[in-house]
Design a protein that fits this description.
With about 130 residues, the protein is α+β, with helices and mostly antiparallel strands. The protein has one domain: Orthogonal Bundle (Arc Repressor Mutant, subunit A), CATH 1.10.10.10. About 45% of the residues lie in helices and about 15% in strands. It has five helices and six strands; from the N terminus they run H-E-E-E-E-H-H-H-E-E-H. The chain has a four-stranded antiparallel β-sheet with strand order 1-2-3-4, with helices on one face. A two-stranded antiparallel sheet has the order 5-6. Helix 2 packs across helix 4. The longest helix has 16 residues. The radius of gyration is 17 Å and the shape is globular.
Length: about 130
């Protein structure tokens, strides 16, 4: 009974205080509470999977996120090296953010995964 009470106490404390903050990386803003994304101040319409994918990449901005981790967290299933669906979703998010060869938010790191680049955020702040 004591264990159950302790678990309930911890989960209740998390739900009361864990109001997700808006994530700002470069010119992209993501609000987990309202499930909205803005790019250069304009709203971006994303599917649930695309939103989850972008949320993970922004949360880990500047670090490589493996395809396996993305499939597990975003799609909620076991990773298969032959499953290219996460690549398709990354491609769609890139298009919706207006990525081009000269201006990329999400970069592919061959053999490793994907990274949301911080170059834009650094150049914006003058660092």
């Amino acid at each position: 009974v004591a264990r159950i009470r302790a678990i309930l106490r911890r989960t209740a404390a998390k739900t009361e205080t864990d109001v997700p903050d808006v994530i700002h990386v470069g010119d992209v803003d993501l609000d987990p509470a309202t499930r909205t994304v803005h790019h250069k101040g304009k709203p971006v319409e994303l599917t649930s999977v695309e939103f989850g994918l972008l949320h993970v990449l922004l949360r880990e901005a500047g670090r490589v996120v493996t395809r396996e981790a993305l499939v597990d967290e975003v799609l909620g299933r076991k990773f298969s090296p032959f499953d290219r669906s996460i690549d398709m979703h990354v491609s769609k998010v890139r298009k919706k953010l207006g990525d081009s060869d000269s201006e990329e938010h999400i970069k592919t790191i061959r053999g490793a995964g994907y990274i949301f680049t911080l170059a834009r955020a650094k150049s914006k702040s003058g660092i």
